[in-house]
Write a structure and sequence with these properties.
Helices cover 53% and strands 4% of the residues. With 178 residues, it is mainly alpha-helical. It has a domain at 64-149: Multidrug-efflux Transporter Regulator, Chain: A, Domain 2, CATH 1.10.1660. It is extended.
């Protein structure tokens, strides 16, 4: 066994032998359970009878976490504060600010205090940006070039949204028949 030399005049200390092999304990990943997740699990139980495997999060599940009101309700207010917009998309306020700096189509108004106020059109544009970045997994630069194409992008996005709504209605019908 080795002894350590004390340079400051004390007794040499003895250290126990170090373990050569360390066992790593992996901690399970825990995530907060949200109402949207519970609804998704419930729908899966209804559609499949029971859940046999561990639930996995797919790209489609991300869309379930967006809480944007319908157009009638969205256009009922002239402006939405940045905090409300962040809650709609379930993201941090800093991410909304970052997207504002990166994308030219986002131009929120600012009051004298400097608070950002988003119009319903800005919320729609944020929805498009969220779709490109989070669901389609585009990079920032890829999303910028995609948005520069113009009308074609909006038509594709609207078509995809319409198809998602139809899919949701069909799934509700299927659940009602079971």
């Amino acid at each position: 066994m080795l002894h350590q030399l004390d340079l400051f005049g004390g007794e040499p200390s003895q250290h126990p032998e170090k373990k050569t092999v360390r066992e790593r304990k992996e901690k399970p990943v825990t995530m907060p359970v949200t109402e949207a997740y519970q609804e998704a699990v419930h729908k899966k139980e209804i559609n499949q009878g029971s859940i046999a495997e561990e639930p996995t999060v797919s790209i489609e599940v991300n869309a379930a976490f967006i809480n944007i009101p319908e157009d009638d309700e969205l256009y009922s207010k002239l402006y939405y504060p940045i905090g409300d917009v962040a809650k709609m998309f379930n993201v941090n306020i800093s991410l909304i600010r970052f997207w504002e700096n990166e994308f030219d189509i986002l131009k929120p108004r600012k009051n004298r205090k400097g608070d950002r106020l988003f119009r319903p059109e800005d919320v729609k544009n944020l929805k498009l940006i969220y779709f490109l970045l989070k669901e389609k997994r585009y990079t920032i630069e890829g999303a910028k070039t995609f948005l520069k194409k113009g009308k074609k992008v909006n038509e594709q996005f609207e078509t995809i949204e319409l198809l998602k709504n139809i899919k949701g209605m069909l799934l509700e019908l299927k659940a009602g028949l079971s």
